[in-house]
Amino acid sequence: MEALGINPIYLIAQIINFLLIWFLLSRLVFPRVLKALEERRALIEKGLEDAKAAEQLRASMQAERQRILEEALAERQRIVAEAVRQAEQQRAQILSEARAEAQRILEVAREEAERERERILGELRTQIAALALAAAHRIVSDALDESRHRRLIQEFFTAVPPRVLEELRGLKGDRVEVVSAIPLQEEEKQNIRKELSDRLDLTGDVIFRVDPTILGGLIIRVGDRVVDGSVRARMEGLRATLMG
Amino acid sequence: MGKLIRRMGPYLLLGLIALLSCGVGGQAAFWLLGSLGDLLRGAGATFLASATGLVGILLVDALVIALVLWGLRDTRVIRYFQTLVVMPLILGFVLGTSLFFGTLGQGLPVGGKPLKAVLPVILVKPEPLTGPLFFGAPLTNTMVAMVLVDLVVLGLGLLAARRAGPLPPPVRGLGILVNLFEFLVEALYENLAKVVLGHRARQVFPLVASIFLMVLAANWMGLLPGFDSIGKVEPAHGHEGGYAVIHWGPFTMLTAEPAAAPAEAAGHEKAGGEPHGTKAEGFVLVPYLRALSTDLNFTIGLALVAVFMVQVWGVRALGPGYFWKFFNVKALRRGFMGVIEFLVSLLEMISEVAKVLSFSFRLFGNIFAGHVLLGIMMFLLPLLIPAVFYGLEIFVGLIQAFIFMMLTMVFIALATAGHEEGHSEGHHS
C-alpha cells in the first residue's frame, strides 16, 4: 500500500476535499444554474409561442387586409358604375332638356316670325287695300256716268235684299230722308215715294238730299234706321273684305 | 488575404499567447517558488516539449473549429484557400516549435550540455515536496494539484452561478467559460441524468456532476505544461540513475546525459552548491505539480464516496429492505436453489467492494499510463508526436471523467430499482 502511495491521511483528506466541493457545488452552483436553464427554456418556449401567435395574428391580419382590399375594390367598381350610370342619366336628361329648350326657342322664334309675317302681311294688306280702294274710288267715280247713276237708283229697291227692306215695314215714316249722289228727277222721286209707301207707313214728307260723297246709289234713313245702297257702302264692303 | 488574416488572426494570437503564457508562467513559477528558499530546479526541455505538444494540439483544434466555422458560411474558394495556406501555416508553426524546442533544441549548447527532454522517473507514489506537515504526512505534488483543481472547479462553478440568468451571458471574456459550464451542465442533466435517473435526477445530479467536474479538471489540468516538468532538482539518493544538471540563468535543468563523469561534472558545476562536490551524483526532478488523477488516494477516495452514496440512495429508495440484496436469507426457505441464491447475494457484497477497486484503478491506470506515455514520447521524439498524444490524452481525460460519472449514475439507478427486480425474479424462478 505504501508503495502505491495509499495513505489514510491523504485518503481522508481527499474524501473531505471532495465532500466539501460537492457540498459547495450542490449548494451554491447547481441549483442556480439548473434554475437558470429552466427559466431560459421557459423563456424560449414562451418566445416560440409568442412568435407562433404573432404569426397567426399576422396571417389573419393579412387575410383581413385582403378581404378589405377586395371589398374596397368591389365598392370602387360599384361606385364608378353608379357614377357612370348617373352621369349617363344626367347627360340624357340634360340633352333632352336642351332639346326641349331648343325646340321651345325654335317654337317661340317661329311664332314670332309668324306674328311678324302676319303683321307685315296685315300692313301690306292695309296698304294694298288703301291703294286698291283709292284705285277703285277713282275707277268708280270715273266710271259713274249719268246713265249708270240712273240705273243704280232704279235698281235700288230690287238690288237691296228684300229682308233689309222688310225691316222698314211698319216703321213710322214721319221723317224719311233719301240721299243721292246726283239730283233726282221728278219721276225718280215719285217712284221712290211710291216704293217707300208700299213698304212703310209714310206719314210725313220725303226729304231728298244730294251728297256726292256717296258716289252713287241711294241711302234711305227712316228714323234711326238706315238702308245703305250707296256705292260708298259697297266700297266700304270691299274694303272690309280686302282688310279681312 | 487581408480577410483571411483578419479571420485567422485571433486564433494565431491565441496560440501565441498560450505559448508565451506557458513560458512566462513557467518562469514565474520558478521565481515565485524560488523566493521560498527551496532548491529550485526545472527540467526545462521537458517543460518546453510538453508546452509545444499542448499548444500544438490546441492550435490544431482551433484550426478544426475555424475550418468548421468557416465552412459553414464561406464559399468553396475560401475553403480551398485555407486548406492550402492556413493548414500548412499552422502545421508549420507546430513543426517549427517542435523542432526548435525539441529536436533542434537538443543541439543547443546550453551550459555546455545538450538540452533534451529527460526520461521521467516513473513513480506511482506522489512525491513529497516538504517534510512532514499534516499529522506526519508531507505535502505532496498531487495535493498541490488538488488545491488547483478545487480552485478551478469552484471558481468556474461560482462564476457560472453568479452569472446564471434566463438570458445566456455574452460569449466573450469569462462569458465563454460560463457558457461552456452551462452547456456542460445542461448536456449532463437533460440528456443523461434525466434519462438514467428519472425522477431522482434533480437530487442525484449534484453528486454525479461534481464527480464529473472534479475528475475532468484533475485529468485535464495534469496536461498543462509545467505539470511533471517543473520542480525541484534533487540528488538521486534513493533512485536509480539520475542526470547531470546544467545552469542557465536562474534556471537549473536536467540534461539527458546520465551522470557518468562525476569529477568532470563536479568540476564544472560548483555553483550547484551541492555538498558532495567531488562525488559522482545524479540528479532527479521532483515536480511541484502532478496530475491529481495519478494519485490513488484521490481515485480511491472518490470511488468510496461514490459507492457509499450508491448504498445511501438504495436505502433511501427502498428502506432497510435494500440490504436484503446482500443477505438474501428469505431465499433459504426455497431449498437448494434458495441456498444458491443466498450465496449469490453474498457475492453482491463483494461486487460492491470490487466497484470501489474498478472505479479507482480504472481512472488511476488510464491517466497515469497517459502521463508515462507522454513523458516517454517527449523523450523519444519531441517532434509533432507529443501533440498527437496530447490530443489522445485530452480525449482520454474526458472519457474517464464521463465513465466515472456515468457508472455512478447507473449504479444509483440500479440500486434504487434493483430490489424489486430481484424479488420478482425470485418469484418466477
Automatic annotation (TrEMBL), chain A:
Transmembrane segments: 6-25
UniProt KW Ion transport keyword: yes
Source domain of life: Bacteria
Residue runs in coiled coils: 34-130
Localization per Swiss-Prot or TrEMBL: Cell membrane; Endomembrane system
GO CC annotation, single: endomembrane system
Keywords assigned by UniProt, alphabetized: ATP synthesis, Cell membrane, CF(0), CF(1), Coiled coil, Hydrogen ion transport, Ion transport, Membrane, Multifunctional enzyme, Transmembrane, Transmembrane helix, Transport
Gene Ontology MF terms: proton-transporting ATP synthase activity, rotational mechanism; proton-transporting ATPase activity, rotational mechanism
Membrane topology of this protein: Peripheral membrane protein; Single-pass membrane protein
CDD domains given in the database record: ATP-synt_Fo_b
Free-text function comment from the UniProt entry: Component of the F(0) channel, it forms part of the peripheral stalk, linking F(1) to F(0). This fusion protein includes a component of the F(0) channel (subunit b) and of the F(1) subunit (subunit delta). Two copies of subunit b and one of delta together form the peripheral 'stator' stalk which links F(1) to F(0).
Assembly: F-type ATPases have 2 components, F(1) - the catalytic core - and F(0) - the membrane proton channel. F(1) has five subunits: alpha(3), beta(3), gamma(1), delta(1), epsilon(1). F(0) has three main subunits: a(1), b(2) and c(10-14). The alpha and beta chains form an alternating ring which encloses part of the gamma chain. F(1) is attached to F(0) by a central stalk formed by the gamma and epsilon chains, while a peripheral stalk is formed by the delta and b chains.
Family under the similarity heading: Belongs to the ATPase B chain family. Belongs to the ATPase delta chain family.
Stated name of the protein: Multifunctional fusion protein
Gene (UniProt): atpF
UniProtKB/TrEMBL annotation, chain B:
Family statement drawn from the similarity comment of this UniProt entry: Belongs to the ATPase A chain family.
Role this protein plays: Key component of the proton channel; it plays a direct role in the translocation of protons across the membrane.
One biological process term in Gene Ontology: proton motive force-driven plasma membrane ATP synthesis
Gene: atpB
Any Pfam family the entry gives: ATP-synt_A
Any GO CC annotation of this UniProt entry: proton-transporting ATP synthase complex
Keyword Transmembrane helix: yes
SUPFAM superfamilies: F1F0 ATP synthase subunit A (SSF81336)
Coiled coil location: none
Membrane spanning residue stretches: 12-33, 45-72, 84-104, 142-161, 204-224, 296-315, 335-351, 363-388, 394-415
Membrane topology summary: Multi-pass membrane protein
Keyword Membrane: yes
Location in or out of the cell: Cell membrane; Membrane
GO molecular function per UniProt: proton-transporting ATP synthase activity, rotational mechanism
Annotated protein name in UniProt: ATP synthase subunit a
Keywords linked to the UniProt accession: ATP synthesis, Cell membrane, CF(0), Hydrogen ion transport, Ion transport, Membrane, Transmembrane, Transmembrane helix, Transport
PROSITE patterns the UniProt entry points to: ATPASE_A, PROKAR_LIPOPROTEIN
Major subcellular site: membrane
